[in-house]
Amino acid sequence: MNKIELVTSHFLELAVRKIPDLFMAIVTLLVGLWLIKKLGTIIQNRFHKNRVDVTLGEFLLSMIKVVFYVLLVISCASMIGIQTSSFVALLGAAGLAVGLALQGSLSNFAGGVLILLFKPFRIGHQITSSNNVSGLVMKIDILYTTLKAGNGTTIYAPNGPLANSVINNTTDNEIRQAEYKVKLSYNSNIDTVRKLILGILDLDDRILKMPAPTVLVSSLEDNAIVLLIRTWSKNDVFWAAYHSNFQLIKETLEVNEIQMAGAKTEIHVINEPASNS
Question: End-to-end CA distance of the chain, in Å?
Fold first, then answer.
């Protein structure tokens, strides 16, 4: 009985001595939770005011809350006498292990943050990257970007390689330039051909008048004069105007008997005089 009484007395003494620390830890925990919630609301309003991307804002806010929750738990544990040094070391080791296991995902996460911060493209933009990713941007997540390809398939592109590639954004500007190349025979009159082509383009309302279409001599090949035709149109009608005008140019040149250049192979036959024996 003496041992039981001694243990009980020691426990009660320890409990009485720890009650103030436990009370302070509980108060600190409640106040800390309230402050973290209040801080989260302030940060969220700041993100909304500065028009930070919703996906990026939610992710950053959750990360900030996790950091503050961990600090709050460590602080409360130290107040009631729990040794936190081993706990911090365990968290560090766990973080290192997770980081090594998720190197690719962390690279994609960093790429996603860069894309959402600097916005080289947005949802609804048509892009082509130097790592052969092409399509209409449907969704930008923190790890992957979802695109709809021209053939109707869905592409899930990791943000790491995408953020480090060269992006050709064809939707970022309102208008876009089209280029046509036409090869003419050396017998063709360039001024006549130029007037015919500009006449076709002038009748198409989808082709902008400013900047005006141009027809220039691009190069002189062995068997052809190469004309470079440049036009400007709005993004929403670009491809329709491009394909229809390409066909109209060919048909108009044929109707006006403009000779197009084609690949020709010349064979020279040399007749050698018979030798007198």
Answer: 144
